[in-house]
Amino acid sequence: MKSMKISDAVVRRLPIYLRFLSELAMNNVLTVSSQDLGQKLNLNPAQIRKDLAYFGEFGKKGIGYDVLFLIEKIRQILKLDKTLSVGLVGAGNLGRALCNYNTYLKDSMKIVAVFDATPEQHGKVINNLIVQPMEELEATIKALQIRIGIITVPSTAAQQVATQFVAAGVEAILNFAPVVIKVPNNVRVHHADFTTDLQSLAYYLG
Amino acid sequence: MKSMKISDAVVRRLPIYLRFLSELAMNNVLTVSSQDLGQKLNLNPAQIRKDLAYFGEFGKKGIGYDVLFLIEKIRQILKLDKTLSVGLVGAGNLGRALCNYNTYLKDSMKIVAVFDATPEQHGKVINNLIVQPMEELEATIKALQIRIGIITVPSTAAQQVATQFVAAGVEAILNFAPVVIKVPNNVRVHHADFTTDLQSLAYYLG
DNA sequence: TAGATTGTTAATCGATTAACAATC
DNA sequence: TAGATTGTTAATCGATTAACAATC
C-alpha cells in the first residue's frame, strides 16, 4: 500500500475533495458520505471511496467520513499541511492577477517572490511583493526555499524560464504559457493553458 | 467513422497540435511526421497518428503530414475556421488579464462582451470593451451570437453566472472559479482552476 | 528501388464502475 | 436490530502503445 503508485487522475481529484470539504466544514457539517460528495462534485461515489482508500481507511462504515479528519488527511497527502513557498516569473496582467490569489490559497501556499525580465517592471510592487530582475532568481529561490514555480511569461520565453527554475532547484512548475516546456524527469510540470481549454471547448458546440 | 464518438482526451490534444503546427508554418516548414510531432510535444507518435486518423487520412505514407493542410483540417474539426464570439463575466484582475489575450486568439475566437455585477465596474473600458451590467447579459449574448462564456467571478457567484449563461443560450463555458458548477447535458463546461493545479503539484514534491 | 512513414489492428495498460461482504 | 455506508474485489470500459502491411 505504502509504495503503490498513485495515478495523476487521483491526485488531481484530491484538491477538489479538499475544497468541498472545507466548504462543508465552514457550514459546520460533521460527516459526509461518498454519495454526498459524488453528487456535489459530479463524480462516482465508488471512485471517491477508491481514491481515498489508496491512502488509508479514513471512513466509518455506515457513517461516512469525518469532515475535519478527512481535510487533515488530504492536506497531509498533498503536502499542504505546511506553507509552501511559490515563485512567479512574468509580472504581466496574468501574473499580477495570480498574485492576488494569495489570500485564497491561505495557509497552504504563498507566492513569495515575483520576477520579470523587463527593467521597467523592476521595483514595482504587486500585492506587497517587489518585482525582481531575473538575475536575482536563483539566489532568491534558494534563500526563500521556493519549491514551486509559476510561469506567466510569453511563449517564447517560457522554456528558458523553466530551465532557470530547474537550475535554481524548483521541483514543480505550473506553466501558463501556451507552449509545451521540457524539464528533467524529477521535475513535475502542469500546464494551465486557457487558450487550449477554450479551443477544445469549441469542438463541442452544436 | 463519421459518427464515431471522439474522446475528450483526443479533443484536448488537437489544440496542442494546432499550436505547434502554426509555429512550424511560421518557420516555413512544409511537412512534419508523427515522430517529429511526438518528440516536440512529449507524445507517442502512434497516438498522434491515431488521433488524426479519427477525422480522416491527412498524411502521406513515407512523407508525413502537410503542415498547412493539417492546420486547416484541425481548424475545421475544432470549429475554429470561423471567428467565435466569447462573453466574459467578472471584470476583476483575472478577467481583465484574459481580455488581453484577444490578440493571441486572433481569428479563431474573440471576447466581444464583458459583464460585471458591481456597479463601480460598469462603463469601464477593458481592451476596447465596455463593462456591462449583468442585466444586459442575455440581450447582448443573443445580439452578438455569443456561444462561449468565460466565468471569472468569485466562487460564490459562479453557479449563478453559469445558470444565466445557459439561460441566455451559451453552449460552452470555461469556468475559472474554484468550484464545480452544474449545467444541463447539452452544455459543455471546462474547469480552468489554477488553485487545484497548484495543489496537485504539491503532491509531487520530493 | 530503398527508406520512411502512414493508417490500422491487436495487445497492453490503466482507470472507472458495479457489486457486496463487513460493520458501524 | 435495521439501515447505511465503507473498503475492496471483480467486471467493465476506455485509452495508449506496439507492430506491421501498405505505399509514397
Largest interface, C-beta within 8 A = A-B, 59 and 59 residues
Q: What is the count of structural domains of chain A?
A: 2
Figure out the total of helices of chain A: 9
Task: Tell me, briefly, the overall form of chain A.
Answer: globular
- Counting helices, strands and paired strands, the structural category of chain A is alpha/beta
Task: Please give the oligomerization state of what you see.
Answer: homodimer
**CATH class category label of the largest domain in chain A:** Alpha Beta
Succession of helices and strands of chain A = HEHHEEHEHHEEEHEHEEH
Average pLDDT rating of chain A = 95
Subcellular location (chains A, B): Cytoplasm
Family (chains A, B): Belongs to the transcriptional regulatory Rex family.
Subunit structure (chains A, B): Homodimer.
Organism (chains A, B): Paenibacillus albiflavus
Polypeptide structure, described:
2 copies of one chain form a homodimer. The first copy, chain A, is of the alpha/beta class. The first copy, chain A, folds into 2 domains: 8-77, Winged helix-like DNA-binding domain superfamily/Winged helix DNA-binding domain (Arc Repressor Mutant, subunit A), CATH 1.10.10.10; 84-197, NAD(P)-binding Rossmann-like Domain (Rossmann fold, 3-Layer(aba) Sandwich), CATH 3.40.50.720. Chain A is 43% helix and 19% strand. Chain A is built from 9 helices and 10 strands. Chain A has helices at residues 8-26, 34-41, 45-53, 67-77, 93-99, 102-105, 137-143, 155-168, 194-203, and strands at residues 31-32, 59-60, 64-66, 84-89, 109-116, 125-126, 129-133, 148-151, 172-175, 188-191. In chain A, the strands form 2 sheets. In chain A, strands 6-7-5-4-8-9-10 form a 7-stranded mixed β-sheet. The relative contact order of chain A is 0.09. The interface between A and B is large, with 59 and 59 residues. Chain A binds a DNA duplex (24 and 24 nucleotides) through helix 3 and strand 2.
